[in-house]
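TL;DR need structure tokens for one chain.
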Amino acid sequence: MASLIPASEATVFKTALADHFDTFKATITVNKEPQRTVTLTADQNIYAGYSAPKEQVTYTPVSETFSAIINYKENQPLEYQDELKVMIEKGDVRIKVELDCKAEFARTPCAAVA
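>> reply
TL;DR here they are.
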């Protein structure tokens, strides 16, 4: 398939986009689903099947930082937060990330982006 951009200009274009990203990037933290660890307690006193073994569940937080460009939509409505006593914008945000973050999103589920 023919390309609209000649091969000689493609490297210049990629370099310009990389410079743009490096100029406006910010660090974001991606909080993923915590790792769940289930352990059985060692002091089990089970006689003839009475009482099930007790499980202890611990959650280990998993997060990673990435570089991203964050774009906020203009003229977003303001909403008053009683707890903080401030007006906070409520609306849309666009986040553009590099390939390493996209690969991480595809590999593991993410809980939230902060």
